[in-house]
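HOLO CASE FILE
Compound: nicotinamide-adenine-dinucleotide
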Amino acid sequence: MKKILVTGGAGFIGSHLCERLLKDGNEVICLDNYFTGSKSNIIHLIDNPYFELVRHDITMPFFIEVDEIYNLACPASPVHYQYNPIKTIKTSVMGSINMLGLAKRIKAKILQASTSEVYGDPDIHPQPETYWGNVNPIGSRSCYDEGKRCAESLFVNYHKQNNVRIKIVRIFNTYGPNMHPNDGRVISNFIVQALQNKPITIYGDGTQTRSFQYVDDLVEGLIRMMNTDDSVTGPVNIGNPGEFTMIELAEKILSLTGSKSTIEYYPLPEDDPTQRKPDISLAKKVLDNWNPEIDLEQGLIKTINYFKNKI
Ligand code: NAD
Ligand code: UDP
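Model generated. Tokens follow.
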């Protein structure tokens, strides 16, 4: 039995990861400050004697003995990470320093939840890990993008300088149950709007693209990455290469929900990337033929059912 710390464990992805790690027979410590996460995401795990919940903020040091650390703590929705941009940077930078310092002291393996946002508004398509990105360092997304880029640098340098056993994954847009209904990300927004027969809010002309990954596929990828041998440090893209415009996404959700919603167009937020699609050849190679199994329609049906019960 491994003892595993999951920071951001009460969030959307973290809650699925905690559940899966417990199912696999591990002891799990879930750390969260509940900024965007919620106890309701992990309430069903609380009676499990191998599950522990800690209210803590990773911008402050934290001491514990564990075998592995999954560092997921960080708001991920543009609405939430822009609410307090300085805190977002502190979470990525000071939080990573605290968790890397912990990993160094206790010789734990540590995985960083990085993001496709390190590629910014990419001029190479699809994006391989070798692409350095096109990020505006002073734009409204920079607190998140540059914070995550700095975190990658910290991980790489703790590895080079202190032999910390690191794993960096660049996660592409992920969705599924346990997303907050007011999360602000496109899939939760469109589903909640469709279920309530309210207008679907497309930002810009809706021709921008994203590649959407169902959360179970991501969790499988994260665990496989943690289990690679120490020579595999990443970064490794984890995402589903299926690419859709926001208009296609809206139409799919309208048809799957049978909604009467109309579509309304709003201004495109600053620096909103025009296209995004992962090159997952490296993930397939180093993660034992990992491949996303759940296509957009299957994943949307599961997510729509979740939101039907939630709202
Ligand atoms: P989320 O907002 O649901 O979860 C983040 C969790 O971290 C929340 O529970 C929040 O309360 C907690 N948190 C935030 N700041 C904290 C702090 N300072 N100390 C302790 N806890 C803190 O978002 P998510 O979608 O589950 O994302 C999880 C991780 O994956 C994030 O690091 C995010 O950047 C990364 N990621 C997610 C996506 C995606 O599409 N969902 C894509 C790329 C990367
Ligand atoms: N978006 C949209 N309507 C919404 C929310 C988002 O059209 O109600 C767009 C947003 O402008 C972006 C895409 O959907 O082009 C994905 O946005 P999200 O916030 O989910 O993720 P990110 O931009 O970080 O990839």
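CASE NOTES: Residues 77-78, 173, 185-186, 189, 201-203, 208, 210, 246, 269, 272 surround uridine-5'-diphosphate (ligand 2) (CB under 6 Å). The chain has one domain: 3-174+213-241+275-294.
CLOSED: yes
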